[in-house]
Amino acid sequence: MIKAGLLGLGTVGTGVVRIVEGHQEDLQRKTGSPISIEKILVQDRSKSRAVSIDKDKLTENAWDVIDNPDIQVVIEVMGGIEPAKTYILSALEKGKHIVTANKDLMALHGAEILAKAAANGCDVFYEASVAGGIPIIRTLNEGFSSDRITKIMGIVNGTTNYILTKMSQEGAAYGDVLKEAQALGYAESDPTSDVEGLDAARKMTILATLGFHAEVSLQDVKVKGISAISKEDIQYGKRLGYTVKLLGIAERQDDHISVSVQPTMVKNSHPLASVNGVFNAVYVYGEAVGETMFYGPGAGELPTATSIVADLVAVVRNLKLGVNGRELFTPYKEKKLKSDEQISSKNFILLHVEDKAGVLAQITQIFAKHDVSLESVLQHPNVSNPAAEIIIITHDANQASMNKVLSEFESMDVIHQIKSVYRVEG
Ligand SMILES: NC(=O)C1=CN([C@@H]2O[C@H](COP(=O)(O)OP(=O)(O)OC[C@H]3O[C@@H](n4cnc5c(N)ncnc54)[C@H](OP(=O)(O)O)[C@@H]3O)[C@@H](O)[C@H]2O)C=CC1
Ligand SMILES: N[C@@H](CC=O)C(=O)O
Q1: Beta carbons within 8 Å of 179's beta carbon, 6+ residues apart
Q2: Which CATH class name applies to 2-129+301-321?
Q3: What GO molecular function annotations does the UniProt record carry, in alphabetical order (predicted)?
């Protein structure tokens, strides 16, 4: 019998209990052992629970789990940095294996946790920390171990994808859809980290580190969330054949990497454009394999718990073989970040401008001056005031040139507002 301890019995913890109990027979066949959840840490034992559980298993004292000599695996699904970090490091010191869904912790302190695990011969698996039910970490570590990954592009936050889908398809108001996502258990306890892109940035830190084998830190990720996206942006995107998505984008060229999270106009023909609702997808480009994409639910009780219990199975199999602590996938390459001159993309720019002769010529001259070539220009009269809206799609342009163009636009009288600027994919 393998005994596991659970730190947390919220959305994900509840799913873990359901799967371990509901799939017990299959789990035994797959691992050769019965698996039981022995002890569960919660904040409040008196709270009613969504799953029926023997009250004696619940504790408000973390050390009942960590110091329990019968428990071999600790599953951390409480979230946050502290006290989760202290509990995980202490459990590793006691030789216990860790399964966690905590992307905040793995993005910020993954290196320290993996080093402690290596020193103690322990496993640390964190499949559920990125893209909920999609086994993307195992795919990068194992499925692509023979290839050289050059691009990882993902819709890795279910809450924002749910919000953008409802805004785009139903014209729903941002605040109402956010409340729905919270009620469905998708959003973080502080949903600001979802909508401002931080949750996605943490996940991209993890994916870029594993995909490029260099220790990418959260500070390396340029982050912009979805709170400034307007209905106008979504509508103009639609007219031109694009869907607005919050994309995490990690790229590598000649060993220089860039990682960002930003609202992006995705061409409707690109497979990421049709990933809707709480679904996530991760597009991976490998030099040898070419284009691949992995799709599935990115959040929610049972999808996330599926990944957690799969990690638990991996720990138990390793225990049987006596090989725990051998699959820690620590980075081995020096990290070199791309400069703005090396980061290149197509761009969507929406300008509010004065509607008079020669304005378009002035604008296109600025692009030409900085060597930015244009793919299309659309002018639309704004009925509410005597101005016009100009939507420009550029060809691939480097970030440094684009910054110069935008900075010149800011000082031009004929441009009333640089309304939006988005990267374009596809
Ligand atoms: N929800 C999702 O879809 C996904 C979540 N994750 C990650 O999984 C983790 C868990 O998320 P989720 O289940 O949604 O979180 P919840 O807020 O639903 O649950 C947290 C659980 O941890 C317990 N807990 C929290 N802090 C403490 C503490 N200091 N001491 C004791 N117990 C504590 C709570 O106890 P009590 O019940 O008594 O309040 C609760 O049972 C997070 O790291 C999250 O980022 C990852 C992928 C998807
Ligand atoms: N809040 C997250 C939950 C999963 O990581 C999301 O919405 O994707």
Answers
A1: none
A2: alpha beta
A3: homoserine dehydrogenase activity
User: What is the average per-residue pLDDT within 144-165?
Assistant: 96
Q: What pLDDT score does 330 carry?
A: 83
- pLDDT confidence of residue 382: 65
Give yes or no for a contact between 120 and 97, defined as CB atoms under 8 angstroms apart: no
Q: Which CATH architecture has domain 136-297?
A: 2-Layer Sandwich (3.30)
**How far does the centroid of ligand 2 lie from the alpha carbon of residue 359, in Å?**
44
Average confidence (pLDDT) over 52-75: 97
- Residue 203 annotated as catalytic: yes
Q: Answer yes or no: is pLDDT of 387 > 90.
A: no
Q: Tell me the CA–centroid distance for residue 30 and ligand 1, in Å.
A: 28
User: How many helices and strands (H and E) does the chain possess?
Assistant: 14, 17
In this predicted structure, what is the pLDDT of residue 383? 58
- Provide the pLDDT for residue 386: 64
Residues with C-beta less than 6 Å from any ligand 1 atom? 8-13, 41-44, 47, 77-79, 83, 101-103, 128, 132, 185-186, 188-189, 299-300, 304
Q: Work out the average pLDDT over 357-365.
A: 94
* 401-414 residue pLDDT tens: 999 999 999 999 99
Around ligand 2, the residues with Cβ closer than 6 Å are 132, 157-159, 186-188, 194, 199, 298-299
Mean pLDDT, range 367-372, rounded to an integer:
98
Give the separation between CA 23 and CA 25, rounded to whole angstroms. Answer: 6
Identify the CATH number of the domain defined by range 344-425. 3.30.70.260
Tokens of 270: 């690109």
What average pLDDT does the chain have?
A: 95
Domain with CATH 3.30.70.260 in the chain: 344-425
In the chain, which residues fall in CATH 3.40.50.720? 2-129+301-321
| pLDDT digits 0-9 by tens, 199-212 | 999 999 999 999 99
pLDDT computed for residue 9 by the predictor: 98
> Angle at which helices 301-321 and 24-31 pack, to 10 degrees?
30
Distance CA 78, CA 193 (A): 16
Q: Whose C-alpha lies nearest to ligand 1, atom 47?
A: 132
